[in-house]
Structure prediction request, 181 residues.
Amino acid sequence: MREFNFPKAITLRLNLDHEDKARGFPSAAEEDISIIEKNRSEILAAMITIEDRIIEAMSKYLFKESKVKRDYFVNEVIGTSDFTFSFKRKSFTRMLEQFELLDPDSIKELKANLNKLMLWRNAFAHGQVIHDQHNGYVLKYYSGGRQELVLNDAFFERAEEAFRSCLYVCNGIIQSRELET
Prediction:
């Protein structure tokens, strides 16, 4: 299969009034950018997975008894592009609350993680990666105002942890309905 290889550019930001010494442009910039691009793709793909698992969890919980109704719900209602991820997220967490499928603390944690994932997805989809002479790689994006996110191992570990946590909850709901047969 053909692989795309488009030219890339990175903005370099230098703040001369900063107290610490500028680190300079990284010697491994090409490798770093390649990793950031791969992680960006992983975050975008992970959000598709989470969205699919939310849809499956909702449909299996609400329409377990009827595959015809479940398929209709997935294909003609919740799975359409008319419903945003935000809507699906809210519907899913409200279902968990309404039917008491998780304890309130778990739902609160799930909501927080889904919000983070949604924010990060939007930031990577619409933002710009720059190299800051003091902070390293930074993702600049707009979310209610100009925002910046330092792209380092700690951030990518938090993102992976949030994704795995959400996936675990969705899979748990799906599996619990499958076990009830």
Notes: Residues 29-62 form the longest helix (34 residues).
